Structures are given as structure tokens and as C-alpha cells.
Amino acid sequence: MANLNNTTGLTSREQLQPDLERAVTAVEAALAAAKKRGASAAECALAHSRGLSVSTRLEEIETVEFNQDGSLGITVYRGQSKGSASTSDLSADAVLIAVEKADAIARWTEADACSGLADKALMANGYQDPELFYAANQSPDYAAEQALVCEKTMLAADSRIVNSDGAHYSSHCGFRVYGNSHGFLGHYMSSRQSLSCMPIAKEGDKMERDYAYTMARNPSLLNSPEAVASEAAAATVARLGARSIPTCSAPVIFHRDLAHGIFGQFAGAISGGNLYRKSTFLLDHLGQQIFPEWLSIHENPLIPGGLATSPFDHEGVATQERDIVTAGVLDTYLLTSYAARKLGMQSTGHAGGIHNWFVQAKAPQLDADLAALCKRMGKGLLVTELMGQGVNLVTGDYSRGAAGFWVENGEIQFPVTEVTIAGNLRDMFKNMVAMSADVDPRHGVQCGSVLLADMKIAGS
């Protein structure tokens, strides 16, 4: 994007405002140009992000990267034929050229009965500021200090930590603008900061590594560099002496850092694109029992400052609170306007993804924390790392490399590595036994650790 402010020092709302105003002007110009060319409809989106990332390794600064990304995308409709084009240059001439190219494509594209803007009645008119932006120190000196303190503390935490894959601090902020020929024009600012580190520990001739991180929109909510370092060091040292286990079937706990991924697979299985393509194992499951009765999933897109908060989706549709699952029963699919038309339904405001899911459990299936969940399990595998992408949403088959800890008598006995866990998502959803209440707040899907009754474990 042309003519942006410097990315050093404190970045505030006031500093971003001129760039946002230029972006809004460019979107308005694109929509006006499309109308002038005789388009039946048009929509335009612009996302911009800027910030910096600093990486250190062995207490030396390894990389300092400044980032500025932003482009305008315009879609022009002629009836139900459409064409799209984009530009990172927001000058008046460049925007006009992008509109002309999109219009030219629309003239040659075959009509699709389901294409077009989302319904006008669904637009997010009168939305409130989602409060996603917080001023942040984006100076390289500050970022380097955070990463260096984190790595130095990590390396000094335990004599068995002999190396480092580094520490990383990043701070990014930006905005999103969306408008269409319904007359809707919406925008909001956002920011995000993070700090992570990855130590390497050695015992004998075996080496292990793990990591820890903190992430928040508000810099004041980040954990301290020392706290991140201590967490990473403890997690890494705990993995020393890891070994495989014999092939078996056993209960499995997905640690809270991973459990959100299971529900992410569920979100994919009920998304409109997979549904109308008939490429999901949850086809025609609306209103059916998917999870146990003690489990529900609630979505709230309007939480101020939430990591997955958004007042409108990528089509301008107003987002709203809704129950995704109630007492284990699937209440809704996740639909864009195109998918909704394909299925003869209405958009649910999920163009661009899901918004702040809260996975909720009822007593007595809700345990206080991971330790209590291990005691409930008694004997089985606590999974703290997953590898590979062995998930098939068409069949629900699930097979991934895993590492973690073997549990007996409700207590961790030894670290485990080089195993594969396998099952089917349909069975995994129904065979959830309990969940812990120590929710991980760093994801758009918030849940505790999850205990499954049984999975196949392939080991030595």
C-alpha cells in the first residue's frame, strides 16, 4: 500500500487512521467505478497489516523483519457472472484498472445461479466497534529486548538445556474494509502481539525440544518473557527419556493446546463448501447427535477484544451469537451466501471462518484441570504433540503421529514418543468422556483438555 506511515515506535489508532481513510476512499472509488461501467452488483475488500518480527538464537539477534501487506480486491457481477481482480496500488488509476479487469472477466465468465452478493437484509448495518485494536510498541529495540530476555531466561533455566531454536517476538496491527453495492461499507482496526521460545534439552545421547508462547491483542495481557521461558523449559525437560510404547488400544487425553484442533476438524466437516460438494462425513447430520449430551458449543462473535471477534463476515453479513451444538446435537451448519444458495438455506455469517467458539461441558463430565482429568482416565496416553495431517473429512478417518506422556493410576509415569494414534472422527466425537475446565484462551476455539474413551495407538 502506498504512502504508509513509519512502522517504528508506538503504533496508535491515530497513526493508523489516515491509512484507513485512504483505504475506505479506495473501496468507495472501486464500487463507484463498477457501477459506472454498468455492473449489476459489486463488492470490494481491503485488508492491511503492518508490524515487525524479531527472532533471536543463542542470545544473538538473528532476524529483524518489517512487514507491510495490503491489497484491494474487487468483484464485479454482470447478472450471475462474476469477475475478480486485485491491486496493491491504491492510486485512482490503479483502482480503476482493477475494476476494468474484473469487469472484463465477468463478461466472459459463465453464469452461476448461486453467485452474487449476500442478501441485503443480512448486512451488518449499525455494528459496534469490536475493540480489537490496542496501541503497541513496535520498535525493533523493544521487540529484541523481549525476545532476548525470554531466550536468556530459557537457557539458564536448567543445565540440561544445551541449545535453542530461538525466541520470537512479533507485533502486528492493521484494519479490514469491506463494501458492496447494497450500500454497506464497514471497517475495523485490529492488533495482535506474540512471544515464543523453543529450547533444546539433552540427556545422554538423546535430545528433545518443546516450546511455549503467549499471544494477545492487548500487549498488557501477554505473559512476561520470564514466564514464557520457564514454561518452555519445563515442558522440554519433561520430555527427556521419551520412549515408545507397545501397540495397544487405550483412553487418550488431548491436551488443551491440541484439543481445539479436534473441534476445528468438526468446523470443517459442517462448513458449507464441504457440504454442497458432499465431501464430509457429517453430510445431512443437522439436528442429529454428534457429541455426548454433556457437551455444547456456543459461538459469540461480538466479544470485545476477542481473538476471533468480527462484527461482520467477509461478505458484510452481520455475525451473531448462536448455538452450534446443544447437548451434543448439531444446531447449524456454517454457511457462506454461495453455500447457502447451493443448499437452499440462508447464510450464517461464516464467510471467512468461525468466531469465538466456547466448548462447554456439564458436571459431572467437567473436571477442574488436567491433573483431575488424568485421575479420571486412570491409565492411558496424554497427547501433547501431534504431527502430520492424516485427517480425511470425507470418511472421518483420523491418523496422526503423536508424542506425550503415559499415565497410570492417574499419574504421569514417563514421556512417550514415536507413536501414532488412529480412529474415526465420528467415533471420537461420540466417545468423548470428559473435559477439563482450564481453558486455553489463545485460540478462536476455546476448550480444556479432552478425554476420549479409546483410540488405537501404534507403537513399538
UniProtKB/TrEMBL annotation:
One GO BP: proteolysis
Ranges for domain Metalloprotease TldD/E N-terminal: 43-106
Any Pfam family:
PmbA_TldD_3rd
The record's listing under InterPro entries reads: Metalloprtase-TldD/E_C, Metalloprtase-TldD/E_cen_dom, Metalloprtase-TldD/E_N, PmbA, TldD/PmbA_N, TldD/PmbA_sf
| Gene Ontology cellular-component annotations | cytosol
Family per record: Belongs to the peptidase U62 family.
What is this protein's record name? Metalloprotease PmbA
